[in-house]
């Protein structure tokens, strides 16, 4: 990115909060930079815009590959922008190693939102630990809110723990499922279902409509054996078609209803406060991880320690103590 010093921050903040897309893009590039001076400026930037954040509806969306996440997000997002919302789509993808992330793929799969002036699509950073990628996604979310986006859709692109990371970023966690519940039901991770605020069975159009309805009934029965995360909300199960734009109005109504209920009881603010504390510790751990891999003394010594531990001549605990002591821990 071009040179940016502290004196230029007030102008960047002003342009960002006016909703200038170029300023938003520059701000996101700043928070994603690994340079120490950029990271210091990014922290000041986030602090400066913090009072203008928190107003958006934050929705996390997950589902197995092929379930239709991108098609559903493209259609839902287009519905929302047509209704007057400003929609940002962010991704958490710890598995991506391609330079620049997967922005080209995201824009290809979300053709309408990609050219919508009231929408903004941003991939996750191209590499890093899950904690680091998700932390940058969180900061990007705050910048989008400061720029006036009132709906943030966070998609899990990777696998494994990325679902938990996205649930910790958002207010509402939507799990998309495929029709034909029989086999899929056995493959659902219990933890993901426990995190779900709603299950939507996608591809409920044409020949798939009846199978989607049957699948929804099975998922609904499965949810009954789990205790809901909130006494205020029992996760509904609905059928949708992202491709045919069927059921997405109901899906959005449920998300809004959830927000209204959770706001009324104070649970939404409580959840967000807990998330902030969790992210504070996630960032501390990420910085320790970065320091561990950047320290020249550690990098020089680690290969020998690894070899000794692998050979069984040095206990792992002793090696760990030596590395920790080099870091002053």
UniProtKB/TrEMBL annotation:
Residues forming coiled coils: none
GO CC annotations on file: cytoplasm
Pfam families: MeaB (PF03308)
Keyword Transferase found: yes
Keywords from the named record: Kinase, Transferase
MF-aspect GO terms: GTP binding; GTPase activity; kinase activity
InterPro entries per UniProt: GTPase_ArgK, P-loop_NTPase
Top-level taxon of origin: Bacteria
Entry EC no(s): 2.7.-.-
Family, per entry: Belongs to the SIMIBI class G3E GTPase family. ArgK/MeaB subfamily.
PANTHER family: METHYLMALONIC ACIDURIA TYPE A PROTEIN, MITOCHONDRIAL (PTHR23408:SF3), METHYLMALONYL-COA MUTASE (PTHR23408)
Name recorded for this polypeptide: LAO/AO transport system kinase
């Amino acid at each position: 990115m071009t040179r940016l010093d502290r004196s230029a921050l007030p102008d960047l903040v002003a342009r960002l909060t006016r909703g200038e897309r170029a300023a938003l893009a520059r701000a996101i590039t700043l928070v994603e930079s690994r340079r120490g001076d950029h990271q210091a400026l990014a922290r000041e930037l986030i602090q400066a815009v913090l009072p203008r954040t928190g107003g958006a509806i934050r929705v996390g969306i997950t589902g197995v590959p092929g379930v239709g996440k991108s098609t559903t997000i493209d259609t839902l997002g287009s519905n929302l922008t047509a209704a007057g919302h400003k929609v940002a789509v962010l991704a958490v993808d710890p598995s991506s190693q391609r330079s620049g992330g997967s922005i080209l793929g995201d824009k290809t799969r979300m053709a309408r939102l990609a050219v919508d002036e009231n929408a903004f699509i941003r991939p996750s950073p191209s590499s890093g630990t899950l904690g680091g990628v998700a932390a940058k996604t969180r900061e990007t979310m705050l910048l989008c809110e400061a720029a006036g986006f009132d709906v943030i859709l966070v998609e899990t692109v990777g696998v494994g723990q990325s679902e938990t990371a996205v649930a910790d970023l958002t207010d509402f966690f939507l799990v998309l499922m495929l029709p034909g519940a029989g086999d899929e039901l056995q493959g659902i991770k219990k933890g993901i279902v426990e995190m779900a605020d709603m299950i939507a069975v996608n591809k409920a159009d044409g020949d798939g409509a009846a199978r989607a309805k049957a699948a929804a009934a099975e998922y609904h029965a499965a949810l009954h054996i789990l205790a809901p995360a909130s006494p205020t909300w029992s996760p509904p199960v609905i059928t949708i078609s992202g491709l045919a734009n069927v059921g997405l109005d109901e899906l959005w109504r449920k998300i809004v209803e959830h927000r209204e209920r959770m706001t009324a009881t104070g649970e939404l603010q409580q959840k967000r406060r807990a998330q902030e504390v969790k992210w504070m510790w996630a960032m501390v751990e990420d910085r320790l991880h970065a320091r561990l891999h950047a320290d020249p003394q550690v990098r020089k010594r680690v290969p020998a320690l690894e070899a000794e531990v692998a050979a069984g001549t040095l206990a792992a605990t002793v090696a760990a103590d030596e590395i920790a002591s080099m870091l002053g821990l």
